[in-house]
Amino acid sequence: MFARKSIAQVQRETANSELKRTLGKWNLLLLGIGCIIGAGIFVRTGSAAALHAGPAVLLSFVVAGIVCAFAGLCYAELSSTLPVSGSAYTYGYTTLGEFIAWVMGVLLLLEYGIAASVVAVGWAGYVVSLLGDFGIHIPAQFTGPAGHLLMKDGAPVLVDGATVTTIFNLPAFLICIALALLLVIGVSESAKVNNVIVAIKVSVLTAFIVVGGLIVLSKFGELSAAHWVPFIPENQGDGKFGVDGIMRAASIVFFAYIGFEAVSTAGQEAKDPGKDMPFGIIGSLVVCTVIYMLVAAIMTLLVPYASLNVPDPVAVVVDSFGEQWAWLAKTIKIGAIIGLTSVVLVLMYAQTRIFYTMARDGLLPKVFSTVHPKFKTPWVNTLVVGLLTAVAAGFFDINVLGDMTSVGTLAAFAIVCLSVIYLRRSAPELPRGFKVPFYPVTPILGILSCVYLITTVPVSVLMFFLWYMLGGIVLYFVYGIWNSNLQKGEDQDDQPDMGEYVAPVGEQP
């Protein structure tokens, strides 16, 4: 259980990656902003405000940003210490051992696989809204999770005088299947396309902030009196409003920050990791927090926060701009759909590569590392991931899926913080390009804050999470520990030639 990959072994397995130190602090800052701004702000902000924090969701973004800063600094130290450009799974394998690496792999299924389902549901919401603008209507019962009452503006939707109970989210299911097939065939995106996608996302939010901000400024007194009084709604218990609601919402909007790890994984390419890494991580978190607070302020000022519990809250708000802005509403929705499509693609890609690495380590069946002879992609693995994400997106509520993603990611972040403490004690002589400031206070605060936010999610989600983790642990003792290459004294299989996929910069939740 506690067998670890040696740093020498990790070096051998990544020896073909000769990275140059070419990234300055501003490169890292822009990389972080591009990676953080994504589906979270387009999808999860509305439910956080509607169900838990009200207008005070602005404060929730600050709390979530601080928690991410603790974890981000720990990621930065690990990435500058361990000669590997891989994920937290590899960090765990090298520091805390195989069992923790397995647990991290199970958690990353939530961070990437289930996150892809969350984004797919948000994508479906924007598609349904956009099609409705053109008079095309998908049957309402096929636009939501199984067994849920279809709601709009906080009230049940009526069709022929009767309420509608959704059966299946068909658009969300189809986008997952389509992108899985695309990944099997192989996708290679140029840096120019990546930059265009990031530009579209940022432009959409900028247009939303500028136009929405002008509308808000023109009648701020009226809007604030109508929608911001009280700014922190009275606590109703069970994480609904009040200070408890702000913290509960922080665990939800935390989803919007996932992606800052991209800065930490560039540690081997930073010109001066000791100075550039903290600048890139903290700087990008500060910039994105300000952007998120502006978006949340406009959303909660222009429409009643109770009407934002939908997969496409930005679409709901832009529809309120007025008829003269109908063209902008369509443009913003199209931009959001383009951005979200790429996010789903990248998250599914990341999940397939985590399974691929675990299969090469012997922890998963070798079929997960089987490469298609023509397309040079792990095709079985990709189809399995596509089916899992499609089923989750088709049948489950976006709030439950989002909570599962946040819990899994927070748990993974806590383990990363713990890995820093372990490595400082077990291998103090290792050269570190960057060291966590105020050690050991920072990683300890990272662990405690992650655990605290986990406790704010509903008990039902926590129980599901515990059963999920228990199932994953049982699987390790039934299969993983007996087939691990490390237990057998073997290195990873030689990596076969796979079709190149350059993940779009800036495409994270």
Number of strands: 6
Q: At the fourth CATH level, what is the homologous superfamily?
A: Amino acid/polyamine transporter I
Question: In percent, how helical is the residue content?
Answer: 55-70%
Number of helices: 19
Distance between the termini: 32 Å
Structural class: mainly alpha
Which shape, going by the Cα principal axes? Answer: globular
Report the average pLDDT across residues: 83
The share of residues in extended strands comes to: under 5%
Quickly list its features:
6 strands; mainly alpha; 509 residues; 19 helices; Amino acid/polyamine transporter I; disordered C terminus; two-stranded antiparallel sheet; globular; 2% strand
Walk me through this protein's architecture.
It is a single chain. By secondary structure, the chain is mostly helical. It has a single domain (21-483), classed as Amino acid/polyamine transporter I. It is 64% helix and 2% strand. The protein has 19 helices and 6 strands. The strands form 3 sheets. The protein has a two-stranded antiparallel sheet. The chain has a two-stranded antiparallel ribbon with strand order 2-3. Strand 4 (158-159) and strand 5 (162-163) form a beta hairpin. It starts with 6 loop residues before the first helix and ends in a 26-residue tail after the last helix. Mean pLDDT is 83; it is low at 14-19 and 493-509.
